[in-house]
Amino acid sequence: MFDPFIYLRASISLLYQNNDIEFRNYSNGAIPEKPMSKENLKLNSMKKIILSAVFMFTMVTILSAQEVTYGVKLGLSNPKLSGILGEVGHTTKIGFNFGGFVEVVVSDQFSLQPELLFSTQGANTKETEMTDKSKFNLNYLNIPIMGKYYVQDNISVEFGPQLGFLLDSKITYPDDQMYDPYDSYDDPYESDENISNSVKKFDLGFNFGGNYDLNEKISINLRYNIGLSNIFKDTYDGGIIETKNRVLSMSVLYKL
Q: Residue ranges of the domains in the chain?
């Protein structure tokens, strides 16, 4: 008999792996990248192995499942970024997500739900002495693989890993002569600045939440995403401390 707690333990173990790049401070203001230690390289490999095992387990389950349903998903989100970029604080913003899902029934109380979602993420920066309010925009193609445990016929809790692929990233300022907190030289630039070269192409996260089935076709989903990896490739003169994605979302699911 399938034990959902095996999937839960494998998913949560990702929370205890840390593969962030190490950095050193230098007196001249530059903060070059320091190679990862052997311990961090080992942890990084363990994280990849665990994530690969979860994906492989999901594919095997889908292929052997007796009952599979498909649907579409649409929702609003409240994304933000953890950490501090220089002296610029961040507030949450309004985003959205949409895409499709497959629910694979494993047992009477447990199912797997892989999803493919377009998601707008990022944060809004606060007004400071250096900069006006601005928008930090990140667009991802996310692939969450959720384990759903039904506590009642129409109520379930969910948990599982998520892999994100960066599609676009930019900062939008209201003026074209703004201070850039990510540039040590403080050069003015246009209101829309593409920062894709500074942001990592992949993002790993962990999701948890709950679902309420209104009827056989329509469900309401509440979910929180915890980013596990630093979204930036490098640090800057102002300093970036563990900048990771955080997303609270509420969505409507419709089974086809």
A: 4-255
Tell me the pLDDT tens digit for each residue of 199-246.
899 999 999 999 999 999 999 999 999 998 888 876 544 555 578 899
Instruction: Please state, in angstroms and rounded to a whole number, the distance separating the CA atoms of residues 36 and 23.
Output: 9
128-181: pLDDT as tens digits: 665 567 788 999 999 999 999 999 999 999 999 999 999 999 888 765 444 555
Q: Rounded CA gap, 93 and 134, in Å?
A: 11
Burial 186-224 (b: 16+ CB within 10 A, else e): eeeeeeebebeebbeeebbbbbbbebebeeeeebebebe
Give SS3 for 11.
helix
Sign of the dihedral through C-alpha 75, 212, 166, 128: positive
pTM for the predicted model, two decimal places: 0.73
Q: Are 237 and 256 in contact (CB under 8 A)?
A: no
Name the token pair of 105. 């029934």
Structure tokens at 141: 């193609």
Partners of 222 in the β-ladder: 210, 250
Which CATH code of 3.30.750.24, 2.40.160.20, 3.50.50.60, 3.40.50.720 fits the domain covering 4-255? 2.40.160.20
CA-to-CA distance for 235 and 22, rounded, in angstroms? Answer: 10
Q: What is the CA radius of gyration of the chain?
A: 20
> Under a CB-based contact definition with an 8 Å cutoff, are residues 98 and 117 in contact?
yes
Question: Distance between CA atoms of 96 and 139, rounded to whole angstroms?
Answer: 10
Q: Are the C-beta atoms of 115 and 73 separated by less than 8 Å? A: yes
Alpha-carbon distance of 140 to 143, in angstroms, equals 10
CA gap 133, 32 in Å, rounded: 29
